[in-house]
Amino acid sequence: METTLRPQIPMYCLQGAAYVCALGAAAAVDGCVGWPFAVVDKTGAPLATVEAHGGYDDEGLFIRVTGEGLTDEMVAGIRDRISAWQDEISRRQGAVAGPLAPLLEDYVDRLVGFGREVEVVFPNGNIAARGTFCGVDVWGRATVRTASGRELEVAPEQASLHLVG
């Protein structure tokens, strides 16, 4: 399934589009989000994948949303959440600390594994670290606290998080 959205947001906020789309899809089916932007059930089992790519063309800024397993209900949820995100950014006159700032609390509330033990896994499958998934910042980076107390900030392009146990 593919849909194109044209929110009126600052260009730098495009970085948060996939997170917002995953949140909207998950909320539409009372599901959860698997960091960074997977739609999962409460156990972490996959329901759908979400990809959101943005850019700028002759008509202005756009977000192209694609994914596997997306239902019409999820796409409607994505549209609603993108609209609410746009409205909140507009209300703040585009001055947000990062693209997820207007919805970070909602995003964290839907995360599977938040506060649980996870492994930080590199794209090649090697485990980088193990610790507690303890935070997400306004740019979408996850924070994992290791047993030694060290905090790792992880961006989606660097590694994924896998629940332990």
Report the strand count.
Answer: 11
Strand content: 25-35%
CA gyration radius, whole angstroms: 16 Å
Bulk shape: globular
What series of H and E elements makes up the topology? EHEEEEEHHEEEEE
Mean pLDDT metric: 95
Strands of the widest sheet, in order across it, are 10-9-8-7-11
Distance between the termini: 33 Å
Quaternary arrangement of the chains shown? single chain
Q: Which percent range fits the helix content?
A: 10-25%
Task: State the secondary-structure class.
Answer: alpha+beta
Number of helical regions: 3
Q: Could you list the spans in which at least 5 consecutive residues all have pLDDT below 50?
A: none
Biggest pleated-sheet summary:
5 strands, antiparallel
Structure write-up:
The protein has helices at residues 17-28, 72-91, 104-110, and strands at 2-5, 32-34, 38-40, 46-49, 51-57, 60-66, 117-121, 127-136, 142-146, 151-154, 160-163. The strands form three sheets. The chain has a five-stranded antiparallel beta sheet, with no helix packed on it. With 165 residues, it is α+β, with helices and mostly antiparallel strands. A hairpin with a 4-residue loop joins strand 9 and strand 10 (151-154). It is built from three helices and eleven strands. Helix 1 packs across helix 2.
